[in-house]
Amino acid sequence: MREERKVAGTRRLGGWAVSLGTALLFASPASGLAVQDTTKGKGVYGKWCAECHGVQGDSKGAAERYMLPAPRDFTGAVYKIRTTASGNLPTDGDVMRAIDEGLPGTAMPAWKERLSDGERRDVLAYIKSFSAFFSDTSQHPEVLTFAGEPGGGSGAEALKVGRQAYDSIKCHKCHGAQGRGDGPSAPTLKDDAGHPIFAADLSQNWLFRGGPAAADVYHRMRTGLDGTPMPSFSDLIDQKFLTEEELWRVAQYVRSLSPEEPPEVRDVIHARQVTGALPQSPDDSAWSNVESYYFPLVGQVIRKPRWFAPAVTAVWVQAVHDGKSVAMRVTWDDRSQSPDTAWNQFTKRVLAFMVSDDSVPAALAPWPDQLAVQFPVKVPEGTERPYFLMGGSSDPVYQWRWSSVPGRGIAGLARGMERFDTLPTARAPATQAVFDHGQRRVVFTRALATADSADELQFALGRPIPLAFFTWDGSNAERGGRMAVSTWYFLALDQPTPPGAFISPVIAMLITLGLGLLVAGRAQTRQRGARG
Length: 532
What we know:
Helix content is 26%, strand content 16%. By secondary structure, the chain is of the alpha+beta class. Strands 1, 2, 3, 4, 5, 6, 7, 8, 9, 10, 11, 12, 13 and 14 form a 14-stranded mixed beta sheet that branches. α7 crosses α11 (244-256) and α9 (214-223) crosses α11. The longest helix has 33 residues, at 499-531. The protein is globular, with a radius of gyration of 29 Å. The relative contact order is 0.10.
C-alpha cells in the first residue's frame, strides 16, 4: 500500500480540484475533529505553509532547497510521525499533532500558539485534499495497539537488556555504538525522494520529532518513520524474534542516552579558579568535576554563501583557570570524522540538493571539521561588542581556531568572513583534540596575559568577557560561510571568595546579636526598677 501511495503521489492533485464531497468526508465525525472547511484552509495554507510545502502540496515551495530535512510532500500521503502501522495513512490526530507541536530538529514550527483551533482544523482538511488516498473510503486509519511500559526502565538490568536488543536489531548500524548517529550505514542514508538524511542523534532527545519520552521512542519503533530508512519493528514482534518488553527496553535504553532534562541555555560560563595543573587533555578526569554549559547553533544565513542546514546543532563548553592560564574544553556531536571518503556520496547529495549561492558552485573536496572560539580583541568596558559574525575590517575579533586537518589550533584576527590574519604559531593556544564515537572534544589552553596586548585578548578576572562559537562539518559540505554560528555569550573567570567574606558577616551578626541582648537587658532592668 505504501508503494502504491508513493506512485499515486507523483500524480499530484491540487487542493482546489477536490470535490465538495471529499471536503465533507474530511469533516465527518469519524475524523475525531470538529467540522473543517477546506476553503478557509486553503487561505491559511497559502499564507503560512505554501512557501515551504509548495502551492500544490508537493514540497516544491520557494524554501524547499534551503532546508534539510526537506518539507513534507503531501501528495503521496506518506507521513513519518503516526500512530498507525507502517504504510498506512495517519489519523487526523496524528497530522494535527504535527501541526500543533511542530517537528523539532526541522524547519517545521509549532502552530498551536500562532493559529486558532479553527484555522488549524481547516488547514488540516486542506492538506489532506492534496492526496486522493484520504478520500478513498476503503482506507480506514486505525491506531496500533501499543503495549504498556514495563516498570524498572531506568534500572541497570533493564538498560542492559535494552542495550543488548539495540545491538541485536542493528540499531548501531545507523545510530552508532553510542547513539550519536555515526554508525557505518550513516553515510549511505537517504529518504524516499533521494535527499540525504542524518540518522538521529539519540543523545539529544529534545530534537526527536516524535517526542522525547521512552513511550514516544517505542511508538516510533512500532510504526517506523515512513519515507525514511527507519523501519517498523512490529514485524519482528509478530515473528517472535523480539518481544514487546524487549522493544520497550530498547526505547528505555535510548531514553537513557539523553540528559534527564533538556539542557538550559545560560548566558555566562563561570570558570572557577583551581589549584594545581589545569586539565589540558580532552579526556582528563578533572573535566568530570567542571560544570558544562550548552549553547545552540544555527545556520549562517546573513552573508553569502549562506547555510540553512548545519550538521552541528550545539556545543557544550567547560572552562577553568588557575589565575595565570585558562583551559577551555568544547564538545560537540559530529557524525563524521571529516574528511572521510566514506561520506563522499552523502556530501554529493547535499551539494546536489541544497541551493548554492557561492560565486562558483562548490565541488566535492576533502573538507575538514573546524571550530572557532571568538572573543573581542579587548574586554569591553560597556555593552558594545564587535559584530558577532567575525567582526569587521575596522573592528576585528580575536579567534582561536581548530581544524581536523592538520589537527592543530591557531590564533588570529578575523576582519569579517572573508579575512583571517593568522598570528605567529608561537602565539597560538595549546590545543589537544579527540574524536570518539561521533563526538569531538577540543581543549584550548592559553596564558591569561600575553606580551601582545594589541592583537591578543588579555583575559581579566571577575569581568564578563564576550565569546561566540562557530563550527563547520566537512562531510555536510560546510566551509567558509557555510557554517553554524552562535550569538555572543560571556565567559567569567571567577575569583575565590576571600576568607574574610565569610567571617565578616558572622562577626557582624554576633555583634548585632550582642547589642540586641544588651539593649533588652537594660530595658528589663529599667522595668524592674520602675516596679520597685
